Amino acid sequence: xxxxxxxxxxxxxxxxxxxxxxxARGFTIDVYDxxxxxxxxxxxxxxxxxxxxxxxxxxxxxxxxxxxxxxxRIEFHHWRTGExxxxxxxxxxxxxxxxxxxLGVHRADFHHVLLAAFDGxxxxxxxxxxxxxxxxxxELEFADGTTAGADxxxxxxxxxxxxxxxxxxPDEAVxxxxxxxxxxxxxxxxxxxxxxxxxxxxxxxxxxxxxRGGELINFVAYVPDPEWTxxxxxxxxxxxxAAAAFxxxxxxxxxxxxxxxxxxxxxxxxxEPLRRWSTGRVTLLGDAAHPMLPHAGQGTNQxxxxxxxxxxxxxxxxxxxxxxxxxxxxxxxxxxxxxxSRANAACFQVPDGPAATERNARLQNLPEMxxxxxEHDVHASxxx
Length: 384
Description:
The longest helix is centred in the last third of the chain and has 30 residues, at 319-348. The chain is globular. It folds into two domains: 1-38 and 122-173 and 272-345, FAD/NAD(P)-binding domain; 43-106 and 174-270 and 350-384, D-Amino Acid Oxidase, Chain A, domain 2, CATH 3.30.9. Helix content is 36%, strand content 27%. By secondary structure, the chain is α+β, with helices and mostly antiparallel strands. It is built from twelve helices and 18 strands. The relative contact order is 0.18. An eight-stranded mixed sheet has the order 6-5-13-14-15-12-17-16, with helices on both faces. Strands 2-1-11-18 form a four-stranded parallel sheet, with helices on both faces. Residues 5-337 form the FAD-binding domain.
């Protein structure tokens, strides 16, 4: 099956990982992306043991570890006092328990590793606007008037995927009535943020962790906001605006927000889980298939699991059966994580009082609550 030509729409992390995994199995790959250049956008992301198993199997584990920060503990703090109400070791404990490290990675650093491994140039400036499928192949139509053909198309083109419209028809993104401030700050000496750090409070919360070997602290600060509906990684706002949104919080929070040179802000969206991911020659991957809110830290990890599964299924079974098997293996798991990510936002933002006390008690069982996500070995169920 390796002689098939596969077009991957989207040169993000999911798309490039898919291209690398497919090329390793002998497929001819073309990657298309709407961006005119692949610039350093985005901030941090977390990679768990389930995602790192995919990266290690592709031979990229050392390169990713070199640009990442190993997160040695997880801490949950009270929003105002800063008191730690739950903590647990990560680092060696996590790796022994879940079979891989838990890393904080700058998205651009991870993207550079994948671009180097892809060892080719994605076709840039190609915004896919339509997909034309026949029993014999697929034609992609781009906004610049050009077209491209393939035997199989993988839509890794994000939340507002054109390939998704071909597979399922139009559907609406679901607005979470929440936006987030994101940024990076240099890690000060003796920084309190050396692991995965949460500050939870009424109606909002903040997550921070080191990236780039501990040189930088990545933060994401979530606020309820039914008015801010712009979903753009390039949208900026003054750092003072983020700090003001957390007025009255512990100084560790407000200082972190105020020290950012540049702060991004975007609205949070997902979509309802799909009943179908694929047609005979076209399928979806990552956010195009199962966009999820970031409250489980699994968006990137699930795209990596998708990539490994799709490559194995296409290689072993061919287009139609391979895409069916890929969907069967992935749909239930990603649906559960999608819906769980929605629920986590409410859990993280309860007011002080009985609801917070109950939440804090549940957190004592956190490792077991998330074990089914992090210990998952995507390779164990794949066609050989």
